[in-house]
């Protein structure tokens, strides 16, 4: 019988003001985080996991009374690619989220009221700076690795650029050096769906006692659609009907329609994701562009990085395509940095980085074993 590993979230309250890229300041903030495994004597086995848009600090294991595992449970834990018998794994909830860290749904200490739309715009750099405060709190001099997929992979790159001596390895999975115009457009449509919902109330829906469920569900439906590949959707749903014949109406008739509506409704109700958080997270994605500070030269942006890189992409991921990962690889090679690249065959689209895949698991495990050997040598 498989042993069940329970974990409890912890809270770091930071009283040192955090200057944000936008020019705003957070006078204090909370970071919710979880840890797994044990930090070794010299602190050389610490791994930071960075989460994606709708992710959180609960990356693996279980909370007591909840049978839902962490979002990367297949890849992190005892005996898994990121082996918590060997590594001390840390994952924090990003600022601006709605899963416990300071964000739009928490109290503004300056007013005693919920932040709502007054919570400032945050960026990948702001997240990394707050995560660095957590690193210092935990007494970790240098991460053995910083790991992330999708938006998490963007944070990994920001770590390597902003704190080059604070990580030895950077694992960038299903990510891109910046969003394409098409991706920014998807995010804008999602935001408009939320902001034009009559229950949004200019972002003060909590005070109004409402939730913009319709707009949030539409935003999630659009986002979810971009995470899947055409081949996977065709194989899973095709043009299958919910009933035996067409009804010639605007009701849900195709199984794929039912699936998307379910995903949207679940996100807006059962998962209770905060609409202001969705706006903030998509804006942070839009703003990520480390090359912009270097005359749009990605190679120059990576010039001072010291970490070794593993970059992973998936063949059917059209949102963050393999071509975007190869841009990262080329920029690193321009600087003669150590980089390994893997392009994984998968029909699951962008979501592939979260799902079981033997080839992906093998590469992930082999690279983490390489890191482990460094301190066992």
Automatic annotation (TrEMBL):
<keyword id="KW-0028">Amino-acid biosynthesis</keyword>
<feature type="domain" description="AB hydrolase-1">
    <location>
        <begin position="45"/>
        <end position="354"/>
    </location>
</feature>
<comment type="subunit">
    <text>Homodimer.</text>
</comment>
<dbReference type="GO" id="GO:0008899">
    <property type="term" value="F:homoserine O-succinyltransferase activity"/>
</dbReference>
<keyword id="KW-0486">Methionine biosynthesis</keyword>
<dbReference type="GO" id="GO:0004414">
    <property type="term" value="F:homoserine O-acetyltransferase activity"/>
</dbReference>
<keyword id="KW-0012">Acyltransferase</keyword>
<feature type="active site" description="Nucleophile">
    <location>
        <position position="150"/>
    </location>
</feature>
<dbReference type="InterPro" id="IPR000073">
    <property type="entry name" value="AB_hydrolase_1"/>
</dbReference>
<feature type="active site">
    <location>
        <position position="317"/>
    </location>
</feature>
<keyword id="KW-0963">Cytoplasm</keyword>
<dbReference type="InterPro" id="IPR029058">
    <property type="entry name" value="AB_hydrolase_fold"/>
</dbReference>
<feature type="binding site">
    <location>
        <position position="220"/>
    </location>
    <ligand>
        <name>substrate</name>
    </ligand>
</feature>
<protein>
    <recommendedName>
        <fullName>Homoserine O-succinyltransferase</fullName>
        <ecNumber>2.3.1.46</ecNumber>
    </recommendedName>
</protein>
<dbReference type="GO" id="GO:0009092">
    <property type="term" value="P:homoserine metabolic process"/>
</dbReference>
<comment type="pathway">
    <text>Amino-acid biosynthesis; L-methionine biosynthesis via de novo pathway; O-succinyl-L-homoserine from L-homoserine: step 1/1.</text>
</comment>
<dbReference type="GO" id="GO:0005737">
    <property type="term" value="C:cytoplasm"/>
</dbReference>
<keyword id="KW-0808">Transferase</keyword>
<dbReference type="Pfam" id="PF00561">
    <property type="entry name" value="Abhydrolase_1"/>
</dbReference>
<dbReference type="InterPro" id="IPR008220">
    <property type="entry name" value="HAT_MetX-like"/>
</dbReference>
<comment type="similarity">
    <text>Belongs to the AB hydrolase superfamily. MetX family.</text>
</comment>
<dbReference type="GO" id="GO:0009086">
    <property type="term" value="P:methionine biosynthetic process"/>
</dbReference>
<feature type="active site">
    <location>
        <position position="350"/>
    </location>
</feature>
<feature type="site" description="Important for acyl-CoA specificity">
    <location>
        <position position="319"/>
    </location>
</feature>
<feature type="binding site">
    <location>
        <position position="351"/>
    </location>
    <ligand>
        <name>substrate</name>
    </ligand>
</feature>
<comment type="function">
    <text>Transfers a succinyl group from succinyl-CoA to L-homoserine, forming succinyl-L-homoserine.</text>
</comment>
